[in-house]
Structure formats: structure tokens, C-alpha cells
Amino acid sequence: MDTTSRRRRWAALLGAGALAVAASGGLAGPAAAASNVDFATHCIPPAVAGIPPIDGTTTALITVDNAAPKVGDTVTVTYTVVKPAASNPTAISLPADIMTPSGKVTLGGAQTGDVTVVGPKKNDPVAGNAPFPSFSMTGTFTVTTAGAITLSPGDYNIHTSYILELDTPCTVTNGPAPVSETVTASPATQPNTRAITLGSASGNPGDSVTVNGSNFTPGATVTLAGRSGAGQTADTATVTADGNGAFSGSLVVNDKTTTGVVAYEGASWSDETGAGPAAYTVIDNTPIPDNAQKISTTVKAGTLSMTQAGDTVSLGAVDYGKGGASGGDLNTVSVKDFRGGVAGWSLTGKVTDFTGPGAKIDAGALSWTPACTTKAGSPSTCQAGSSGTVGAAGATLASAPNGTVTGGEFTVDAKLSLNVPAFTPPGTYSGVLTLTLS
User: Which residues belong to the signal peptide in this entry (predicted)?
Assistant: First the structure.
């Protein structure tokens, strides 16, 4: 055999990926969440290797970054082949970083389908006749259905780049493989779009105010009520929403301390089934007694504003061929609400694609974990937005709800993470995150 023929023969063996059989075993029973599972595997070496198909056992582990997502969330999946169904079939040591794995994770239960996963071109050297090393692959899927979603290891392929470019596909025998991880998805939070408007913003004690409502439950009985600060007054009335969820009713307002009007379904007020408060003032027309003076002052309304600690964020570097999460911190945003009244506020953000040297990273690769604190004494309490993807469509960073009395000072922060694909060309990638306060 000449030198060229020997080189090709060794290259075929090196590219086989799963050639020497590990001890064969039966399929394991159902596994607990996030646990190693064993499954029978059928591997086909490259034809040039001259080696017959291999039947062995693979040990694998599936993990996720979020085991309790909501419908619409993106879940990152990591498929780790803890023990491939093969060993180095030669006495020749194999060099580092010649293996690029890819595969599938099988979804079952509430949501079915396959998740494509890919690993970096990275492996430790393999001694002659030694077991092939463990490797990991990652991918993502979007949750579309609430309930328990199972994740099982699927087929995988080992691509090697050493003298020749070769593939060794390994398929699950008598699939699906056992469940290695389970996520429990909850329904997406449905926004409360109920709304009310008033026919007038003020009136004398005993006047009626017209209340118009929209987006209530069709046919629901709706209570109209006065509010004084955070409490409900004795002034109430009921109306019935029509087939479109709309209504028009009137409420007689007697309580001079009234600051607003609300409407709600059910026995008592809740943010989930109510709307308002809409601002309403009772004009105190009580006559001034003889030899008395009525003294008044005015509190001027301010504005809703925000400032940020900086306009540049540098995320951590990732390795070419490995990729993964590039993390950092959003510059702190300070929100001041000095408007008075009943309106809350919302701080949202959206991001562009990250462009670099001849390539780009999709805007959907940026996610955040928001945090929000309220300065002591503020009437409102801010709420951090949900952790998850920011993307071009945008997401809520923080908010404060409507209330009878609102306002205050708030500090908003977020942990940022950009999921960089493994083989993104080296260089600097930049996108613009735009924040909007309303």
C-alpha cells in the first residue's frame, strides 16, 4: 500500500467518529428530568473506511436554560453526548479540534417536533484506541403549547476535518430514546385590554357621570364604582356588557373625596378584570360660612422622564467555534413620574440586528433579565418585565400600573445576553437598543 493510500485509509478511520463498539445494551426505562439516559445507537462509518455499521450504546443528557417557560418563550437546549457509542479504532492518536457534531432533540408531550442542535469544532486529543470524548450541541425552540414537554436525545452526526471531510451519522435504534429532560410550559400572560372613559372629569355632589367601557367579557355584569385614594367609596352601579364587550352606564357620585371611577367584573376589584381608575373630581360647592375664609393652593403637575447612565454597553467576548452567551449589564435607567393623576407608565425596548465583518447576528439572539426598584415613598410600585428575548419586535423592560394615585422615582436595570452562533466570523458586532417610555 503506497503512502497516499495509507493516508486516505487513516483519514477514513479518523473521520468515522463512532467506529469501535461500546458494550451494547437495551433501552433504559423512562428517566427523571435532566438525567443521563442510555439508548441503542446504529452508526454508519464512511464508506471509504471499509468498516461495517456499528451498533452500540450512547449515554446522553439534555438540559435547558428555562424549565418553566411561558408560551411564546424561547428555550435554549443543550444535548450532551456523555459517552458516544464508539472509541478510536486505531492505535494512532487523533489531534484536537477535528470534530464538529450536530443532531436533533425530539420533543414530545404537549409539543412535538425536533430541535436542531449544533456543537463547536472543539475536542480534546484522543489517544489510540481510547474512547471518543464527550461533546455538547445547542439549539433553541419556541414554546407553542402549554403543558409538560418532554425532551429526548435524537440522531446525531460526527463530522471530522482531518485530511478528509467525513461524516459518521448515528441514529437512535427503536426510537424514541428515553426522556432526559421535561419542561412545564404555562399559558402566555394575556394582557388586560379593558378600558373606560368618562363623560366628564368633574361634577357637583350627586351628579351623574357617564361611564363608557370596552373589551370587557361579552354579557358580563360590570360594577361601576367611585374610588377615594386606594379605597372604594359607597357610590356604585351595575351595567351589562353587550355582545362586543362594550357598555355605557351612569354612576351617581356623592362622596366628596372621590378621586376616580373604576369598572370591574366579579364581586370585587382586581387588576385582571377591571379598568381604570379614570380621574374624577367632586366639586365642593359647600357655602362658606359667615366670618370664614376658604384657603386654596395648587399643586402643579410635572412630567414623565427618564435618564440613562451611559449609551454604550460592551458585552463579554466569546470564542470563535464555540460561541454561546455574550453577557453584560444594561446601563442603569432612572425613571421619574411627577405627573400626578392615575396613569401608570411602561418602559419598552427593541433592538436591531448586530452587524459585523461581513455577517450579522439576528436581533432575536439578544435576551434580558430585567430588574426594577422603587424609591421609598413613591405612590407607584414598578414591576420588572419578563425575562426573555428582546428582538426587533421589542419587549417590556419595566412598568408601573394605573392607580388612584401614581408617581415616584424608579431605577431600572437588566442583565443582557447575546447568543452568538458558534462559527460567527471573528470581529466586533454592534446593534442599537432603543428604549421608549410612555
Answer: 1-33
